[in-house]
Design a protein that fits this description.
Number of helices: 7
Radius of gyration: 46 Å
């Protein structure tokens, strides 16, 4: 089984356990719209609520926050004024906000012992906002509908597995679709957002559009948006701008430092998702054994210890992406949208490291992220790019944008800012989401075109994200061209190898033919035919002649060669003919060895061999 299959299987197992419960107690999923009141049931409650404790988790890495402890409401949380405990031990929350989404657990304690199993409630919050504060006829408006859910699995996976759907309906309940020419409906699964864009008409005053969420074709909750034209009513709808991802050097332009209340500089770091970041510890001592790094995701979340006295904690999901620098800075690899928040660097001194040395160094991490409404990109298709700045919310995004002059905007590849006056683009923003969107219809020449989302603070670029158009049709043609080129290269290489082999074979053949011709030319075949026996016999007789007959003249005695080689070549067409000496071999070598010139007294020095 491949790694991908294993990951998918684990995801399905986890999702199944999430939706059906592991402990044996049913897990409840509650869908609610922002601004309403909700009641979360405690399915394991005992006879009274003195044994009941309610805990809250905002997201995977957040620590548990105790809201109700043994029937008593905790007052050290920001939302405590909106909380109450029902007579059946249920948890009641008034005026739900999008920050209330998450995972609530009802636990029972009896005589100091925790009883199993817990009752779990997952709260999903649906929220709608508008891109415009001033509403009037002729104005283009974009409505953002977002489902905030606890993320043990991605929104996209959960939508597919549980058949969760987000859609817009008109005031008669008819579902609006992309085929309707008046509306542009776009969605982004990784944000769990669906947007509705339209140009308002005079008759749209008091018109309603409703965003609904369904699970397995059953409506769970909905939010209605009513058009209130500014010209006809004093009622207005609030709106806020947004931004997207690609960062500068984290130690320079994307870092903003302000003087904190505690006397220690508070640092604001802007980074894009997918990059690495370094968070400085401005109060570090001579070594890092006294350094502790803590994290808070949002107001109500409990503190999570990431580094304790110089040692990395391994009980957090992100621990593999964390490291402590030699200067006690906190390094985070492959930043995700879940990493935004407040990071605090603390110093602990004393023999047992039990004395907290104040003040702390605080770092606010803001993450810029861009996503697209489409996975398949091609000319003629309408595409919406979502650029969102994720920020720690000590104040609202709108207030922070106003006070710190934070701006989100889109620029083209020439660096020119795109505005609403450009007829080709529709730019919309939503301040309570800190999102800015870019909608356009793609052209053929848009392949490899870049649009960049930038975030600025006091007119200084802090980080940016570039989106490059990759047309599916162009990508396919590029792939086909590459395949053709590979085939041509393979064919050409094969032809060259075959040609080389042919040339080599011809060279070898030519060389062998030359050798045969040289052998045939050394002896005339016609003179050899029929004289084979006589030739061999005469030569053999000369080899076996008496020593006396081999004496040479004095002039010949001057030669000092000890060995003489004689080549005897025999060629016969008629091998069956009997000869005095059988000379079947084509080549015969004879060697004669003798003594020095002069009379031979020792005939043993003379020898002959025939091969």
């Amino acid at each position: 089984m491949s790694d991908e299959c294993r990951v998918c299987l684990l995801g399905l197992i986890f999702l199944s356990s999430l939706l059906t419960g592991i402990s044996g107690v049913d897990e409840t999923h509650v869908f609610i719209s922002s601004g309403e009141n909700v009641r979360l049931s405690c399915n394991n409650a005992l006879h009274d609520c003195n044994s009941t404790t309610w805990n809250y988790n905002g997201f995977i890495d957040s620590a548990t926050v105790e809201l109700i402890g043994l029937g008593i409401k905790k007052k050290d949380t920001e939302r405590h004024e909106r909380l109450s405990l029902g007579s059946d031990c249920s948890l009641n929350i008034r005026n739900i906000s999008k920050e209330d989404y998450g995972y609530y657990t009802c636990q029972q304690y009896l005589n100091g012992q925790r009883l199993k199993a817990d009752a779990r409630v997952f709260l999903h919050v649906l929220h709608v906002s508008s891109s415009q504060t001033e509403i009037s006829a002729g104005l283009s408006v974009t409505l953002f509908c977002q489902l905030y859910s606890y993320p043990p699995v991605s929104c996209d996976d959960w939508i597919r597995s549980e058949r969760i759907q987000l859609f817009w309906v008109n005031q008669t309940g008819v579902k609006l679709t992309r085929s309707d020419s008046r509306y542009q409906i776009l969605s982004s699964s990784d944000h769990c957002i669906i947007t509705l864009n339209t140009t308002l008409l005079n008759e749209d005053h008091n018109r309603e559009w409703r965003c609904e969420v369904t699970q397995r074709d059953q409506v769970k909750t909905s939010v209605t948006y009513t058009v209130k034209s500014s010209a006809q009513s004093d009622s207005t709808t609030s709106v806020i701008p947004v931004h997207n991802t690609h960062s500068q050097d984290p130690s320079t332009t994307n870092t903003h430092t302000t003087k904190g209340i505690s006397g220690v500089d508070e640092t604001h770091v802007f980074i894009s998702s997918g990059e690495n970041v370094r968070l400085s510890c401005n109060n570090a001592l001579h070594d890092c054994t006294s350094t502790t790094w803590n994290y808070n995701g949002f107001r109500d979340s409990a503190t999570v210890e990431l580094i304790g006295l110089g040692i990395k904690k391994k009980d957090t999901e992100r621990h593999e992406r964390l490291s402590l620098g030699s200067d006690c800075s906190l390094n985070i690899r492959n930043i995700s949208t879940e990493d935004y928040g407040l990071y605090s660097c603390q110093q602990w001194t004393g023999v047992n490291r039990d004395k907290h040395q104040k003040p702390n160094a605080r770092v606010y991490l803001h993450v810029l992220h861009v996503s697209s409404s489409q996975t398949e990109i091609s000319a003629g298709l309408s595409v919406t790019l979502f650029c969102q700045l994720y920020s720690y919310p000590p104040v609202s995004c709108d207030d922070w944008i106003g006070s710190e002059r934070i701006q989100l905007f889109w620029v083209n590849q020439a660096g020119v800012k795109l505005t609403r006056s450009d007829s080709r683009y529709q730019i919309s923003s939503s301040s309570d989401h800190c999102i800015i969107t870019l909608n356009t219809t793609l052209l053929n020449e848009d392949h490899n075109r870049e649009w960049r989302c930038e975030v600025t603070q006091r007119d200084q670029v802090k980080t940016s994200v570039t989106y490059t158009v990759k047309s599916s049709a162009q990508a396919d043609s590029t792939t086909a061209l590459t395949s053709t080129e590979v085939i041509v290269i393979v064919v050409c290489a094969s032809f060259v190898l075959l040609l080389l082999a042919l040339i080599l074979w011809m060279m070898i053949r030519k060389k062998r033919s030359g050798v045969r011709r040289a052998t045939d030319d050394s002896v005339d075949p016609s003179s050899r035919a029929g004289t084979n026996s006589l030739f061999c016999e005469s030569n053999l007789e000369s080899l076996h002649s008496s020593p006396e007959s081999r004496q040479t003249s004095p002039s010949q005695a001057e030669q000092t060669d000890d060995v003489t080689y004689t080549e005897v070549t025999a060629f016969s067409k008629n091998r069956a003919k009997k000869n005095k000496v059988h000379c079947d071999d084509k080549v015969t070598y004879a060697s004669i060895g003798g003594a020095k010139a002069g009379a031979l007294e020792d005939y043993s020095q003379l020898y002959a061999s025939v091969n």
